Amino acid sequence: MQITIFGTGYVGLVTGACLADVGHEVLCMDVDADKIARLEAGEIPIYEPGLEALVSHNVAEERLRFTTDPAAAVAFGTLQFIAVGTPPDEDGSADLQYVLAVARTIGEHMDGYRVIVDKSTVPVGTAGRVREAVRGALATRGSELDFDVCSNPEFLKEGAAIEDFTHGARIIVGTDSPRVEALMRECYAPYNRHHEKLMFMDVKSAELTKYAANAMLATKISFMNEIANLAERLGADVEEVRRGIGSDPRIGYHFIYPGCGYGGSCFPKDVQALARTAGEVAYRAELLEAVEAVNHRQKATLFAKLSQAFDGDLSGKTVALWGLAFKPNTDDMREAPSRVLMEALWAAGARVQAYDPEAMAECRRLYGERDDLALVEGREAAVTGADALVICTEWKAFRSVDFAWLRRTLTTPVVVDGRNLYDPQAARQAGLLYYAVGRGASL
Ligand code: UGA
């Protein structure tokens, strides 16, 4: 099957490489000529385990190609995936300008039937707007060519995107057209071999499914963070509570890890966008607002704990950070708790000495060179000469540490663990002033 993908960002590139890998012919289009040139040279603009090898393999096999030519892109695939960004507007709603620009491009260049597949996370009702944009561009040409628009939301996790694409729990397709259903079946047949994963539904339900899934997961996290904050004040251990409730299959163990708040490009943006969508239909989504508010507060707890440990005066202190990315196995720092912490530390006159296995270049790009930020190679270098340590990301390499060494190295042995990596008792016995999330010893 010939497939075109607009947008070579995270979703577009993973989708393109995975579809090419199962034998489809894929053409990825991007307006960014520099990015396309780099991709053609085998250079991947994002960090995602396995992606570089998958892209180079399929480029070598000539099943995966790149272009900046919109006419060639529209001419290529019967299926035209839109996987461009939908950044949040100032008010939290998704900005659809890039999605609608692609829709117009397709309308301007198509010469026969096309299925436009909305892959980007877009608010309910976007398929209708895409349809109007294509129709408008066709009308300008005096053309009435036939086309369909369907919704096919992605459920990829950064760091596990290839696995999620190839072994995802479900493939959602929103359409009311049997012709689209047949084409989407053909596209996803290689992933639908052992049991039926394809779920067809109406377009709006598919669009809402994507938001509902992310909002549900974000709700679980904020709920656990709320319980953790309570546990801290009540003298209970949230990790015990987590095990206790996770064992109930109706609750489950997934996504109930308390921490320093959820980040990334999806949860914060999608919870806000859904609340905003609710507002547009005169419904106040109070639960979603609370999920967002709890998360906001949770990100601030790292600084609050540290500040209390130093009696409210962090000026002149050097704070080591282990982890900058919003989660392990990515270099993504969008909405990362580490950023909220660093910015608060700088405002309080402290210095940051940070290490992250992948996100240091991204950190440099975001904050540039500054006197109060040192990006150092390795977790040892980060704590050397530091007064305190904060763990912001649960990279594997941080899971085990010699507490006695930490005790000797840190000037004041304060450790704020935003990811509950260590046994509080063992850490405290080793002489560390150890503060985790929801594990007693509230500050
Ligand atoms: C999320 C969803 O998990 C994907 O299913 C979805 O496709 C994707 O958004 C998207 O909409 O594109 P992602 O943002 O890559 O994926 O990251 P997650 O692994 O879900 O983690 C999100 C945040 O929640 C991280 O900051 C993580 O540290 C935090 N988290 C996760 C917790 O604090 N506790 C948990 O129990 C789980």
From TrEMBL:
NCBIfam families: NDP-sugDHase (TIGR03026)
UniProt xrefs under Pfam families: UDPG_MGDP_dh, UDPG_MGDP_dh_C, UDPG_MGDP_dh_N
Catalytic activities: UDP-alpha-D-glucose + 2 NAD(+) + H2O = UDP-alpha-D-glucuronate + 2 NADH + 3 H(+)
The entry's keywords: NAD, Oxidoreductase
Protein name: UDP-glucose 6-dehydrogenase
InterPro entries referenced in this protein's UniProt entry, alphabetically: 6-PGluconate_DH-like_C_sf (IPR008927), NAD(P)-bd_dom_sf (IPR036291), UDP-Glc/GDP-Man (IPR017476), UDP-Glc/GDP-Man_DH_C (IPR014027), UDP-Glc/GDP-Man_DH_C_sf (IPR036220), UDP-Glc/GDP-Man_DH_dimer (IPR014026), UDP-Glc/GDP-Man_DH_N (IPR001732), UDPglc_DH_bac (IPR028357)
Native source organism of the sequence: Modicisalibacter tunisiensis
SMART domains given in the database record: UDPG_MGDP_dh_C
Pathway(s) it belongs to: Nucleotide-sugar biosynthesis; UDP-alpha-D-glucuronate biosynthesis; UDP-alpha-D-glucuronate from UDP-alpha-D-glucose: step 1/1
Top-rank taxon, per record: Bacteria
Lineage: Bacteria, Pseudomonadati, Pseudomonadota, Gammaproteobacteria, Oceanospirillales
Gene3D superfamilies per record: Cytochrome c1, transmembrane anchor, C-terminal, NAD(P)-binding Rossmann-like Domain
Domain UDP-glucose/GDP-mannose dehydrogenase C-terminal intervals: 320-424
Family the UniProt entry places it in: Belongs to the UDP-glucose/GDP-mannose dehydrogenase family.
EC number: 1.1.1.22
